[in-house]
Write a structure and sequence with these properties.
Number of domains: 1
Strand content: 5-15%
Number of helices: 8
Bound molecules: zinc ion
CATH class: Alpha Beta
Order of helices and strands: EHEHHHEHEHEEEHEH
Structural class: alpha/beta
Largest sheet: 5 strands, parallel
Low-confidence stretches: 221-226
Oligomer: single chain
Mean pLDDT: 90
Radius of gyration: 19 Å
Helix content: 40-55%
Length: 226
């Protein structure tokens, strides 16, 4: 019996951290589409080369190729109990294609965990981010400011802000994300497998809430669905 989960969350929702912790606390394997890509390119697999041929032409890798990579990945022995998808699907079209391909392999998505965080909080989380030039410690001018402005608490180094973390760029990233993702969320809502989690709460609370949601559909996945 496998359990396949998709983790969704806008930039700034803490999805990466949560995916890692969730994988550590369950027997599910974290499958991040970015890692999948890098591994396929590094190992020079047939699909990796195919993906590269598109990237070399400056084109997007077609969904079909990404889905073949995913199907290949989830056949690996370490995915026997199930996976946590991170970074794919991003659009409704991708979700439909992934669902169909998985169904053809007697597999399916059992649940979708969606980290929901209000727009203004996401904005401040992204645009308030500061990193120490010397030791890499991170701060946030709104939520977790350093003691002295611009100076690292840990080592006294200088703090900097990434140029693409300005309010305007952050809002643009969020707009793009939500335009793509809302139809995806509705798609899984209609299938009644979407679990919304309050991503505003602290990290440990969010992780517990995700585990609770997971335990719910690990049970219901044994029951027939429409
Ligand atoms: Zn520092």
């Amino acid at each position: 019996m496998t359990t396949n989960v998709i983790l969704l969350g806008p930039p700034g929702a803490g999805k990466g951290t949560q995916a890692k912790t969730l994988a550590e606390r369950t027997l599910l394997t974290h499958v991040a589409s970015g890692d999948l890509f890098r591994a396929a390119l590094r190992e020079g697999t047939e699909l990796g080369m195919l993906a590269k041929s598109y990237m070399d032409r400056g084109e997007l890798v077609p969904d079909e190729v990404v889905i073949r990579m995913i199907l290949e990945r989830i056949k690996a022995p370490d995915c026997e109990l199930g996976v946590i998808f991170d970074g794919f699907p991003r659009t409704r079209e991708q979700a439909v294609a992934l669902g169909a391909s998985m169904a053809a392999h007697n597999s399916k998505i059992d649940g979708v965990l969606y980290l929901s965080v209000p727009n203004d909080v996401l904005l401040r989380r992204i645009a308030g981010r500061q990193t120490c030039k010397t030791c890499g410690a991170t701060f946030n001018i709104y939520y977790f400011p350093s003691h002295k402005p611009g100076i690292c608490d840990a080592c006294g180094g200088k703090l900097y802000q990434r140029s693409d973390d300005s309010m305007e760029t952050a809002q643009h990233r969020l707009d793009v994300y939500f335009a793509q993702t809302m139809p995806l969320i509705e798609h899984y809502q209609r299938q009644a497998i979407l679990y919304e989690i309050d991503g505003q709460r602290e990290i440990t609370w969010v992780n517990e809430a995700m585990l609770r949601a997971l335990s719910q559909f690990m049970v219901t996945s044994a029951q027939p669905k429409e």
